[in-house]
Amino acid sequence: MTDLPYKRIKGLKEWNFGRFEGEHEYLNPALPYRDFFVQFGGDGEDEVQKRISDCLLDIMQQEEGRNT
């Protein structure tokens, strides 16, 4: 928790596991997951990586070196 202002950014949301969301970890396949969760309505690995990378690049371009 913080008293500082913050902004929620959709591009930084966690990996969507589809129908596996909230289930026990032992149900997941061995890493790397790749596209396993796509068939269950979740995200593919490449999709997650691209979304987060694009979002971080956008943040870096907007903030112009500020660190507060």
How would you describe this structure to a colleague?
The chain has 68 residues and is mainly α. The protein has one domain (10-63). The chain is built from 1 helix and no strands.
Brief summary:
The protein has 68 residues and is mainly alpha-helical. It has one helix at 45-63.
Number of continuous helical runs: 1
Principal-axes geometry comes out as: elongated
**Could you tell me the mean pLDDT?**
91
Distance between the termini: 16 Å
N-to-C order of helices and strands: H
The domain tally reads 1
Please describe the topology of this protein:
Layout: H1 45-63
Notable characteristics:
68 residues, 1 helix
